[in-house]
Structure formats: structure tokens, C-alpha cells
Amino acid sequence: MFQAFDVSKALSGSMRFINESGLIIGFGLSFMMIVFITQLISLFVLKLVEPK
């Protein structure tokens, strides 16, 4: 993921390296939480709709 965002080669206007690892980790965790919550909701709805 770090290579995909090309973190090591990203430069700011003053030619310093930008460390955006926190941003990348935040996006990854947010995406995983959305998927997890969606999975929980779908399991709950499936249990309600399909009684056995």
C-alpha cells in the first residue's frame, strides 16, 4: 500500500519528505470498519428474514 501511494518519493514545496503513513492507515482502518459493520448488519438482517 505504501508503494502504491508512493510515500517515499512524495515531496512538499520545500523539498522535504512527506510522511503520510497515518493518513494511509486511517483510510485503511476506516474502510475495514465500514466492511465489518456492513457484514454485521447483513448477518443480523439474514437471521431476521430467514427463520430456521
Please give a structural write-up.
The chain is an all-alpha fold. The chain has one domain (2-49). It is 63% helix and 0% strand. The chain has 2 helices and no strands. The chain has helices at 2-5, 21-49. The chain is rod-shaped. It starts with a helix and ends with a helix.
Sheet/helix structural class: mainly alpha
Largest sheet: none
Rg: 19 Å
- Uncertain regions spanning at least 5 consecutive residues: none
Describe this protein with a few key phrases:
52 residues; single chain; 63% helix; mainly alpha
Task: Summarize the structure in short.
The chain is an all-alpha fold and 52 residues long. It is 63% helix and 0% strand. It is built from two helices and no strands.
Helix-strand layout with pairing:
Blueprint: H1 2-5, H2 21-49
